[in-house]
Amino acid sequence: xxxxxxxxxxxxxxxxxxxxxxxxxxxxxxxxxxxxxxxxxxxxxxxxxxxxxxxxxxxxxxxxxxxxxxxxxxxxxxxxxxxxxxxxxxxxxxxxxxxxxxxxxxxxxxxxxxxxxxxxxxxxxxxxxxxxxxxxxxxxxxxxxxxxxxxxxxxxxxxxxxxxxxxxxxxxxxxxxxxxxxxxxxxxxxxxxxxxxxxxxxxxxxxxxxxxxxxxxxxxxxxxxxxxxxxxxxxxxxxxxxxxxxxxxxxxxxxxxxxxxxxxxxxxxxxxxxxxxxxxxxxxxxxxxxxxxxxxxxxxxxxxxxxxxxxxxxxxxxxxxxxxxxxxxxxxxxxxxxxxxxxxxxxxxxxxxxxxxxxxxxxxxxxxxxxxxxxxxxxxxxxxxxxxxxxxxxxxxxxxxxxxxxxxxxxxxxxxxxxxxxxxxxxxxxxxxxxxxxxxxxxxxxxxxxxxxxxxxxxxxxxxxxxxxxxxxxxxxxxxxxxxxxxxxxxxxxxxxxxxxx
Length: 502
Description:
Blueprint: H1 14-34, H2 49-53, H3 65-76, H4 98-110, H5 121-137, E1 151-155, H6 158-177, E2 187-192, H7 198-205, E3 213-216, H8 228-240, E4 244-251, H9 263-272, E5 276-280, H10 291-298, E6 306-309, H11 311-314, E7 322-326, H12 329-336, H13 376-410, E8 415-422, E9 425-430, H14 435-450, E10 457-461, E11 464-470, H15 478-501
Parallel strand pairs: 2-3, 2-4, 4-5, 5-6
Antiparallel strand pairs: 1-7, 6-7, 8-9, 9-11, 10-11
Keywords: Decarboxylase, Lyase, Pyridoxal phosphate
Protein name: Tyrosine decarboxylase
GO molecular function: carboxy-lyase activity; pyridoxal phosphate binding
């Protein structure tokens, strides 16, 4: 096994770069060919397993790429849950595609850091173009386009998007009502019991007291959507107590059940009380590329202050990539901007004059961190390589698979669909009430996942343990969905037979 002495180390030697990159691509191509042969969930769940296999210290000398990849194959892969397996139906999908991978390679290879305009003008401008393209594709109103007074930015996650918009809402509210930072104790955030927990985390991070976060119950009667009347009643009670309504989160495609909140009705409540309305469409926003799903998001979006969706979930874009649009960027940049001398866009030749003119964006002021990745490249590649029609077909294919699974569940009298299917998410369980039935459903899910042939996750709603099947993998075909249903049925047969014998 060769080594790399320090005096010959050339980290970006073009020939070595080509050879190492080719080795990794070949490794990944082989992995994707065989990914369906791995247990979907990590084969080993033993904490500390990898630490036992790896040396205590880093190597003194460099090692060949093939030796490193051999260790990945032997030691790392068995401890991974294979998110790109065609039988991965857990959480929500985490998409990947060859186009996104190519764009990511270019992004990583170029390795630019476009935090201010002058740091890489084309990178910043490509992001503004891509964000406008995406806004138009999913039917957002013109007020979210750069030409319409708004604009968009690529964040890493919904959590980052929520924190940024909460900070913008906080500072806007304090400026409007003329209170200092002590007034933050009066600000209140509203969400439903189906809203992703990232909203509560974000509220804490921007200083909102946990006691000022309102979790509003939903019910099956409303499809587990957040009712505007419930929000209005809660807001009225808070106003009567001298509190200040700050931020309302509406969700299109909730994590647990895929519920869709009524954006327009919630927008009316938000406008009436001066709240910031954020629409979280992390998962289901991708479906809005299809006309038949666009209304969930577009109806009322003109009343929102911000909208977010994650192309890395269901839009063929590798992690990480979250689109955040704001109707008025000045509120975002006022809360997040810094302007030290060393970061100003100054022309070094002319000396002292701003380079950034109309249309120039310093994206450091649109996010939490200073440094940032060139994420626009991979999303641009996805849009260019597959086109809107290709992505629509991809989304519709997954929805059709989920529709089939929903019908199959409904055709087996032992099972029930707990909530109406939304998009490509089906929530189901063995019928019955009480802890005993919940226990059977827990056993069913554990046995399915333990088989290694599929991976699903769960949710608890109104005290019921529910199994979730989320279709959306880039390699998933109808046969994988059928196999998953057959696995569920066979496993249920075994469990119910064992219980009758006890």
